[in-house]
Specification:
This protein is an alpha+beta fold. It contains 28 helices and 27 strands. The protein has 5 domains: 3-87, Alpha-Beta Plaits (2-Layer Sandwich); 93-222; 235-327, Distorted Sandwich (Calcium-transporting ATPase, cytoplasmic transduction domain A), CATH 2.70.150; 415-439 and 551-666 and 727-742, HAD superfamily/HAD-like (Rossmann fold, 3-Layer(aba) Sandwich); 447-547, Calcium-transporting ATPase, cytoplasmic domain N. Strand 3 (47-53) and strand 4 form a beta hairpin. The longest helix is centred in the first third of the chain and has 37 residues, at 89-125. It starts with a helix and ends in a 44-residue tail after the last helix.
Length: 776
């Protein structure tokens, strides 16, 4: 088997004549790395484009199909100094963990060696250097510790620098390696010449602080769920095909063609996009639309791959199967959105791009200048090494990761988990906040809204009957009633359940099936966004309103965010339900009935208007928007694919972590900028002193360490961010409600339609949405 054949299954074809492959690249640490990789790949004949994602160290390469073999791309990256391998979800996360562990081991070794060499140096400072034999002994002992320690602990920098030099380029690790090697080499020369001073301690302290910064950065970069979840988890790989003679045969999804007839049995995940030809059932579209209320389908209604058939068997005429499905559309939008966001360059990276040429030029000019003044080459080289050490980017390397780590801890204590450190910077830049409705502003699980209006006996009876149903909304009645023992009942697909209990015929289901239009009318008026379930008894009926209520602090959080940011609601749900939530929260702009592409279009419009948006959503249909937004947050209850694409997750039922994230991120970004200025001021003071020869390598290492400590102490201020809103204010905050008609609403489409009735019941009032299927 050839290497090209080995890579063939990693190649995808996003368009006719175009091949693409996702790769994971080692050694990507800064914006300069992104530019080197993207420009280098684009120079390769046949390559159409390359995009690097700094956070996940992934590069997506597209080329003209047939123009080159995949191994050529790997060879090109190797020549650029960045070894790469194909992205595979099952292996990448373990590779990232191993890289993190390696950095931690190197840091431990460097710290251990630095402490021991420093003890020996302290002995020399205390007077042991008065005797030349004792001084030489201590220097040789320091060398015995420092050389193997540096050889092991410096590997991440040495290997990266060697790759860059082989590729005839220079990255940040080249001056680091040069400073460490020259300091150690000079120290050995000083030891062999029986000089009074050696600088083994300086070299090891340099490595220790650099590794600390690199480890913190690596830990914050490793996104916890990027590689664990993908759309294949909800894509069925087989379907039951119905043949003309009545034969039913299970076949791979790749063998299903448009126009075929397939069987979707109750309880199974639908494998294709198509239209119902025969049968009636309810479909759980929560993974597609984000809405938990099931949708009733009958002949002619569209169904989508990835949704779950709940109650009845369906015969579906296939529109698309292996490709072209709604899931494929979401996956394509998701890939595009990730690529568009991957060019973001962090504050520290922008500053670090200038570091390498400036430091090399300063050290070389110092060496040449002192030689021109008649100083010996050893002294000139010593001063040049001092310049390399004192300008080491330890403080610069810690400036951002240290703040990220402290701020991430502060956010975690408030119920928010960051997936990447750079999300803090993007959160601080947010000017508009866009919320999904269902599962984000509302509770993730439906609840019984009018439990207080239901007689206790009726609630207990309905709960026992609901235990016999598989319908998702029935669980709300079960939980409200605390039911434990079911009543034996027969389930009628799309209608409800019926039973004979103590000689009486009971029904629990839709309004129409139970014949309770009159009883349901006042409940529908009181709860216009609720699904209605009826318990029909011989002489009366009890009507249950099941809805997803607002999160307990949604009003207070939206009011708090609206003080500093624009707030919008983008939802796939029906316009009346979205309008009601917008009115309750005081949100003036909302859009309803949106498909994933519509949400992305609105986010792009905000970006083009220079109003960087934060997207808060939870459904599969939100995943492309979460990836496309400037920054994104999902609740922990979100669909797995939505969690994977979000920059952060918030825990629990409260929405307050979203407001906390914006506030703490703003403070964290200020501290990052302060740290970068501290690093700059340190260099403005220290570098001239080093160039003029007033600083020894040891003092340079101590000064460098002091700047790192100062930056770290400043970063600790991020943990002092406090929630400025008391619980009383949260309870009392309620923004004025605008008229319902003031929102900017779009008509609902098939992507968000959900019945007002439960168990397949139709709405009691005319639904303003167009028929499902319009707008696609």
């Amino acid at each position: 088997m050839t290497e090209a054949q080995d890579l063939s299954h990693f190649v995808r074809r996003p368009a006719d004549g175009v091949a693409a492959m996702d790769l994971v690249v080692d050694g990507v640490y800064c914006g300069a790395c992104i530019a080197t990789i993207e420009k280098g790949l684009r120079r390769q004949a046949g390559v159409r484009g390359a995009r690097v994602n700094l956070a996940s160290r992934r590069v997506t390469v597209e080329w003209n199909e047939g123009a080159l073999d995949p191994p050529v791309i790997l060879e090109r990256l190797e020549a650029l100094g960045y070894p790469a391998y194909p992205f595979a979800a099952e292996t990448v996360d373990s590779v990232e963990i191993q890289a993190e562990k390696r950095l931690l081991r190197c840091l431990g070794v460097a710290a251990f060696g630095a402490m021991n060499v420093m003890l020996l140096s302290i002995s020399l400072w205390a007077g042991a250097d008065k005797d030349s034999a004792s001084r030489d002994l201590f220097h040789w002992l320091s060398a015995l510790v420092a050389l193997p320690t540096a050889a092991y602990a410096g590997q991440p920098f040495f290997e990266s620098a060697a790759r860059a030099l082989r590729a005839r380029s220079v990255n940040m690790d080249v001056p680091i390696t040069l400073g460490v090697v020259l300091a150690l080499g000079m120290s050995m020369l000083q030891t062999l010449a029986h000089e009074r001073v050696a600088y083994f301690d300086s070299a090891l302290m340099l490595l220790m602080f650099l590794l600390a910064g690199r480890y913190l950065d690596q830990r914050m970069r490793r996104r916890t769920r990027d590689f664990a979840i993908n759309l294949s988890a909800i894509r069925a790989d087989r379907a039951v095909k119905l043949f003309d003679g009545g034969e039913a045969r299970e076949m791979p999804i790749a063998a299903i063609r448009p126009g075929d007839l397939v069987l979707a049995r109750a309880g199974e995940r639908i494998a294709v996009d198509g239209a119902v030809e025969d049968g009636r059932s309810e479909i759980d579209q929560s993974l597609v639309t984000g809405e938990t209320a099931p949708v009733e389908v009958s002949p002619g209604a569209p169904v989508y791959a990835g949704t779950v058939n709940l109650t009845g068997a369906l015969r579906v005429r296939v529109r698309s199967a292996a490709s072209g499905t709604f899931l494929e559309e979401v996956n394509g939008l998701l890939a595009q959105a990730l690529e568009q966001r991957s060019s973001y360059v962090r504050l520290a990276d922008r500053a670090a791009q200038l570091y390498v040429p400036v430091v090399h030029a300063a050290a070389l000019a110092t060496f040449v200048g002192w030689l021109a003044l008649g100083v010996g080459w050893q002294q000139a080289l010593l001063i040049a090494i001092t310049v390399l050490i004192i300008t080491c980017p330890c403080a610069l390397g810690l400036a951002v990761p240290a703040v990220q780590a402290v701020a991430a801890g502060a956010l975690f204590r408030r119920g928010l988990i960051l997936h990447s450190g750079e999300a803090l910077e993007r959160l601080a830049e947010v000017e508009a906040v866009v919320f999904d409705k269902t599962g984000t502003l509302t509770e993730p699980r439906p609840t019984l809204a009018n439990a207080a209006d239901i007689a206790p006996d009726d609630l207990r009876l309905a709960g026992a009957l609901a235990l016999a149903s598989r319908h998702p909304l029935a669980k709300a009645i079960v939980e409200a009633a605390g039911a434990k023992e079911p009543i034996a009942a027969e389930e009628f697909p799309g209608e409800g359940v019926a039973a004979v209990w103590r000689g009486e015929r009971l029904k629990l289901g839709s309004v129409a099936w139970c014949g309770a239009e009159a009883e349901a009318a006042p409940v529908a008026a009181a709860w216009p966004d609720a699904s209605l379930i009826v318990l029909r008894m011989p002489e009366r009926a009890a009507v249950f309103a099941v809805r997803q209520g607002l999160r307990s602090d949604a009003r207070a959080v939206v009011a708090e965010i609206a003080k500093r940011h624009e707030v919008e609601i983008l939802s796939g749900d029906r316009e009346p339900a979205v309008a009601l939530v917008a009115r309750e929260l005081g949100v003036m702009r909302y859009e309803a009935g949106l498909k994933p592409a519509d949400k992305i279009a609105r986010l792009k419009a905000l970006e083009s208007a220079v109003r960087r948006p934060l997207m808060v959503g939870d459904g599969l249909n939100d995943a492309p928007a979460l990836a496309a937004a400037h920054v994104s947050i999902s609740p922990i209850s979100a669909a797995h694919i939505a969690q994977a694409q979000a920059d952060a997750l918030f825990l629990g039922e409260r929405l307050m972590p979203v407001a906390d994230a914006l506030r703490i991120a703003a403070k964290a970004r200020r501290l990052m900028v302060e740290n970068l200025w501290l690093s700059a001021v340190y260099n403005l003071i220290a570098v001239p002193l080093a160039v003029l020869g007033f600083v020894t390598p040891l003092v340079a290492a101590l000064a460098m360490s002091g700047s790192s400590v100062l930056v770290t102490l400043n970063a600790l201020r991020a943990r002092d961010a406090r929630i400025r809103m008391t619980n009383l204010a949260m309870r009392n905050a309620r923004p004025p409600s605008p008229p319902v008609g003031e929102g900017v609403a779009r008509s609902s489409t098939d992507e968000g339609s959900a019945p007002n009735g439960a168990f397949g019941g139709r709405p009691l009032t005319p639904d303003p949405s167009p028929a499902r299927g319009e707008g696609r």
